[in-house]
């Protein structure tokens, strides 16, 4: 058995409230100090995960994110500040984490995490934590976890709802057991498209951090084999069982997946995919619409955005019918002139 690192006087003082918990105690805190955790994505979910794992005393934390801080992030990405706008998220996060706890090690990877570098970046970390907001990264982290026999702490947010679970361990299911196939491209919009309640990533990310601490210390029961569903609109929490699929191509009885793949391409959102395309020959650039206006060509601008989106940026001389009402309001759309939908 590998010996655990001792705690200094400063560490005993810093973590004293955790040390009082019999489920954690001195041994659990030593396990936290000896542990290493890789957080992929330092945004809405990654912010509370990183802050709380740093505060809890996880000895080595890796941060993966190629993005820079934007002012629009600050509504939910609480590890960053207004003064860090324009800087790399990993740099901003490391500064805050070490301000909270200078006794830990923070490794930075300011790159895009994909199938070409995932193994190399994650090498040496005990637990993989999902702070991303896209489908390909979830399959990548899940497959990497299963293939390397490490736990994957999953979290996701959408508008007012969140999900948390633990995948990747041999005795439980993997993400593919729950979602065998990815959804069609664009079916699940990102936060930048659908929006998200600012506090929701904080709730979900804190739950993920809790699962990481439990995995490291052995305290309590984790969400392995369960999926927690959180709805902040009625503040309901539901936990459903997730079974390990014996026919799962990754973790089942006869697995056929043995290597990481290009997950962007597999999910149908490769470099050549245009998520906003109406189809070949049907797309128009704003300049083309402007030229048609200047030339006096008759056409109708059909605005299918929701009312709250129209209130944010109203475009005059348009017919506004929200996308969800189109079927019931087809009679309002003229059939004798071209229609430009936006």
Q: What labels would you give this structure?
A:
about 350 residues, 11 strands, alpha/beta, three-stranded parallel β-sheet, single chain, elongated, eight-stranded mixed β-sheet, Rossmann fold, 2 domains, Oxidized Rhodanese, domain 1
Summarize the structure.
The chain has 342 residues and is of the alpha/beta class.
How would you describe the overall organization of this protein?
The protein has 342 residues and is α/β, with parallel strands linked by helices. The protein folds into two domains: 35-266, Rossmann fold; 286-341, Oxidized Rhodanese, domain 1, CATH 3.40.250. The chain contains 13 helices and eleven strands. An eight-stranded mixed beta sheet has the order 3-2-1-4-5-6-7-8, sandwiched between helices. A three-stranded parallel beta sheet has the order 10-9-11, with no helix packed on it. Strand 7 (226-231) and strand 8 form a beta hairpin. Helix 4 packs parallel to helix 5 (89-100) and helix 4 runs parallel beside helix 10 (200-217). The chain is elongated. Mean pLDDT is 91; it is low at 271-275.
What's the helix count?
13
- Label the overall shape: elongated
The low-pLDDT segments are 271-275
Overall pLDDT score = 91
Q: Report the span from N to C terminus.
A: 62 Å
Largest sheet: 8 strands, mixed
Helix content: 25-40%
């Amino acid at each position: 058995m590998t010996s655990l690192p001792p705690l200094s006087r400063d560490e005993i003082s810093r973590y004293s409230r955790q040390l009082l918990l019999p489920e954690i105690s001195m041994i659990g805190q030593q396990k936290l100090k000896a542990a290493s955790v890789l957080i992929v994505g330092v945004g809405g979910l990654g912010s509370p995960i990183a802050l709380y794992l740093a505060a809890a005393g996880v000895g080595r934390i890796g941060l993966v994110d190629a993005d820079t801080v934007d002012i629009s992030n600050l509504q939910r990405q609480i590890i960053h500040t207004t003064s860090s706008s324009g800087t790399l998220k990993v740099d901003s996060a490391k500064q805050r984490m070490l301000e909270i706890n200078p006794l830990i090690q923070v490794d930075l990877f300011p790159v895009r995490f994909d199938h070409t570098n995932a193994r190399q970046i994650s090498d040496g970390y005990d637990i993989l934590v999902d702070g991303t907001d896209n489908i390909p990264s979830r399959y990548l982290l899940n497959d990497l976890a299963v293939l390397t026999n490490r736990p994957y702490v999953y979290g996701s947010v959408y508008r007012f709802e969140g999900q948390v679970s633990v995948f990747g361990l041999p005795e439980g299911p993997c993400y593919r057991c729950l979602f065998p196939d990815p959804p069609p491209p664009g079916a699940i919009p990102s936060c930048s498209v659908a929006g998200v309640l600012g506090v929701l990533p904080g709730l979900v990310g804190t739950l993920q951090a809790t699962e990481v601490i439990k995995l490291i210390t052995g305290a309590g029961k984790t969400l392995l084999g369960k999926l927690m569903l959180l709805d902040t609109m009625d503040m309901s929490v539901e936990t459903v069982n997730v079974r390990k699929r014996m026919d799962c191509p990754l973790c089942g009885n006869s697995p056929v997946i043995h290597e990481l793949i290009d997950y962007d391409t597999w999910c149908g959102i490769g470099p050549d995919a245009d998520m906003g395309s109406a189809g070949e020959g049907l797309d128009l650039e704003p300049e083309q619409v402007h030229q048609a206006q200047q030339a006096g060509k008759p056409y109708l601008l059909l605005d299918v955005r929701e009312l709250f989106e129209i209130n944010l940026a109203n475009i005059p001389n348009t017919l506004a019918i929200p996308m969800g009402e189109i079927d019931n309001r087809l009679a309002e759309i003229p059939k004798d002139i071209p229609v430009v939908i936006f």
